[in-house]
Design goal:
The protein is an alpha/beta fold and 278 residues long. It is built from nine helices and nine strands. Strands 1, 2, 3, 4, 5, 6, 7, 8 and 9 form a nine-stranded mixed sheet that branches. The N and C termini lie far apart (78 Å).
Length: 278
């Protein structure tokens, strides 16, 4: 009797200045029920005990491998290092301030196993902010959508909480076509948006309507440090344009996606150049 081996998954943990909160994240990964899991932790250059905590955990769980970076890579660089090291069928970014339910990876892997055209599977998320307030995150916008063009339109419109799938499980063979996350003219600002856009152009998104991920904003969280200024929005829109043109869409579809984006680029450029009223 033949048996089917479970899909191999690599959890990618980009860690930085996380000594105060990373242990529960590591424990949640060790508690995953998926039988074919490898966890790769990359500790960016920092001055706290993140490295020591991760290494102690790896001694207790041989599925973990910890890499110490000797120069500061930043969020994008550290994530791309992890992507370059990932092996297996699927991968996910397990961010250092997220807690995953024990069945998280198993549930998402089952969805990708069942649908070869799917690029990403993800669950709903509960956010807890630094004041203890909570917000439920769900992203049903792409549910059942098989058209890459329409998925692209919806991600570009930033309908709903488009960032939720960035915590999902993605098919490595598809994601490698993107070439990683990319900095742009505004640095790392919202660099996950062009990444999610390109994933949506590669394959369908499968939402598991269950609360399987808990995110915690921490003092010093990267996204909380951004200005969300017009120049930043201009640059990240331009980065989305690059991903459209580098995608496998046909030329006519690329142009159809790019035209409204060009209009938004011009609007952000105009607003960025307009002096504030006094």
């Amino acid at each position: 009797m033949s048996t089917i081996s479970p899909s191999a998954v690599t959890a990618l943990v980009p860690a930085y200045q996380a000594a105060e909160f990373i242990q529960p994240t590591l424990d949640a990964l060790s508690a995953q029920t998926h039988p074919a899991l490898h966890v790769l932790v990359s500790v960016d250059l920092c001055d706290d005990d993140t490295q020591a905590i991760c290494e102690r955990h790896a001694l207790r769980d041989p599925r973990f491998r910890v890499v110490r970076q000797t120069s500061r890579l930043g969020w994008v660089g550290n994530s791309n290092f992890l992507l370059s090291q990932a092996q297996g069928d699927y991968a996910l970014f397990a961010f250092h301030d997220d807690l995953l339910a024990p069945t998280y990876i198993a549930r998402l892997a089952a969805e990708l196993d069942a649908d070869p055209q799917a690029c990403v599977a993800f669950s709903d998320v509960l956010l807890t902010d630094t004041q203890g307030g909570q917000e439920f995150w769900s992203y049903p916008t792409l549910d059942g959508e098989r058209s890459a063009f329409i998925r692209g339109v919806r991600v570009l419109e930033r309908r709903g909480k488009w960032w939720v799938p960035n915590r999902g499980l993605f098919r490595l063979s598809m994601a490698r076509q993107i070439g990683g996350l990319k900095k742009h003219g505004a640095g790392e600002f919202s660099a996950d948006w062009p990444w999610v856009l390109h994933l949506a152009l590669l394959g369908s998104f499968v939402r598991v309507p269950e609360l399987l991920c808990h995110k915690f904003y921490k003092p010093g969280s990267l996204s909380r440090s951004w200005d969300f200024s017009q120049p930043q929005y201009f640059e990240v829109h331009a980065a989305c344009m690059r991903e459209i043109w580098n995608s496998s869409l046909g030329t006519q579809e690329k142009i159809a996606l790019a035209l409204p984006l060009m209009q938004r680029l011009e609007r952000h450029r105009h607003l960025a150049m307009t002096p504030p009223s006094t």
